[in-house]
Amino acid sequence: MDDSVKMILKKLDDIDSRIKNLEKPSSDTLRVTETKTTKVERDLLFPKALEIMDKHDELSAKMLAEALKIDVKRAELIMDQMEAAGLGTCYTKDA
Fold first, then answer.
1. Which domain holds residue 72?
2. Which of 13, 38, 60, 84 has a CA that sits 20 to 30 A from residue 19's CA?
3. Are 74 and 93 in contact (CB under 8 A)?
């Protein structure tokens, strides 16, 4: 796996842990309402999709599906996960 992909995955994990910490009530504050913990789930092919994204100037769900040899619906879900991670739905690489 490329170093830039590893760095992106590490940063996403850091963000996920920060979000979880924000959702936990602090010990010195009494909260009346319960917070709902949202688990960020990523497809098993998410790291591979990041590698593919890094190699292309633009990436669509159809291109991702062809590269990963999966159906377009699953590729669209991975693209949604990329968008949720702040990478956008149609990734354009800076030149």
1. 3-24+41-92
2. 60
3. no
